[in-house]
Design a protein that fits this description.
four-stranded antiparallel sheet; Rieske Iron-sulfur Protein; alpha+beta; 15% helix; Naphthalene 1,2-dioxygenase Alpha Subunit, Chain A, domain 1; globular
Length: 345
């Protein structure tokens, strides 16, 4: 369990207070790096908190609470002057540390020190901007070193929007027994449904699931490209609470997919999916984007309909099969973070 320093919850928070406090210390992606510019601020949400992001002239990304403390306007509706964020209501200016440095209506007044908006730490990795709402000590950060490897092709698909809990989405990404059914139109094989046994290895950040089977990862119409009886290895690496990296061993190289689920609210999720591979680097990029979109759309259709909407952490609430080893490990590790048995994210 991560030690937490309690901070105030967002207004109209959809999480239980204890769950929000348990989730707030972790890193989540909140935007693509290319979305954050020095021309205009960018508004988004994380764990029900309204955030504003912008880039200083030096290239540093600033993340802050999207709320002017003077009269409650959204700073994301304002503009940027140098390294200052300007409120659209009265022109109040905040510097990169969140401190108010100018009140145009009273330029000579002494500015109260408490006129300072809350700012958050930022990391830019894998084409994404990440932040955390409670900076109360180190927590593991998801790793995808291949993204910076010049031998790899990097692909950044559009974000996947879901009306579903982040926990449900990540569990679906880890699931290995649904290929033949949910992905029957993309790569699943209806005559290849058996799930071979696979090991689970606990890690500091989460766990690994090393799954080997004969289910091809090629799309239908391309499965002939794999040698007969080729063994497909899918290595899942989980970074709690809601990020998982999948490495698929192809006949001619490696494919890496980072499934980074960002909980907008308890039952609304944005999934960022950086992808990189060290083979077929001259293949049309749009084919990769289309295939990825198809697979995530197939998952979205079922995840948005699951009931209950929340991911049950009490194992006796649902029935499990041997192939659910990764799901069981995921639920146990989420519970160990201090999340409630009736999980709301």
């Amino acid at each position: 369990m991560i030690a937490t320093q309690e901070i105030s919850l967002p207004r109209d928070c959809t999480f239980t207070p204890s769950d929000w406090q348990a989730l707030a210390p972790f890193w989540y992606p909140v935007a693509f790096s290319h979305e954050i510019t020095a021309e205009r601020p960018h508004g988004t949400r994380l764990l029900d908190e309204r955030l504003v992001l912008y880039r200083t002239p030096e290239g540093t990304v600033i993340a802050a609470q999207d709320l002017c403390l003077h009269r409650g306007a959204h700073l994301s509706k304002g503009w940027i002057e140098g390294d200052r964020l300007v409120c659209p209501y009265h022109g109040v200016q905040y510097d990169s540390a969140g401190q108010c440095v100018c009140i145009p209506a009273e330029p000579r007044t002494s500015i109260p020190r408490r006129l300072k908006i809350r700012t958050y730490p930022v990391m830019e990795r894998y084409g994404l901007v990440w932040t955390r709402l409670n900076d109360n000590g180190p927590v593991p950060f998801p790793t995808m070193t291949e993204w910076d490897d010049p031998d790899y092709l990097q692909v950044l698909p559009d974000v996947v929007e879901l009306n579903a809990a982040a926990g449900r989405q990540v569990e679906g990404f880890l699931d290995v027994s649904h290929f033949a059914f949910i992905h029957a139109k993309s790569f699943g094989e209806p005559d290849n449904t058996v799930v071979p046994n696979y090991p689970i290895e606990q890690t500091l950040a989460g766990f690994k699931a090393d799954y080997v089977s004969t289910v091809s990862n090629y799309a239908h119409g391309m499965k002939h490209l794999a040698p007969p009886d080729f063994k497909w290895r899918r290595l899942f690496e989980v970074f709690l609470p809601f990020t998982a990296k999948l490495t698929v061993t192809f006949p001619n190289g490696l494919l890496h997919i980072l499934n980074a689920a960002s909980p907008v609210s308890a039952r609304k999720t944005r999934v960022f999916v950086p992808i990189c591979r060290n083979f077929d680097k001259d293949a049309p990029l749009q084919d990769t984007l289309d295939f990825n979109h198809q697979i995530f759309a197939e998952d979205k259709a079922i995840v948005e309909e699951q009931w209950p909407e929340d991911l049950p952490l009490k194992l006796s609430d649902e029935i499990h099969i041997t192939g659910d080893k990764s799901s069981i490990a995921f639920r146990k590790r989420l519970a160990a973070l201090g999340l409630g048995q009736s999980f709301t994210a």
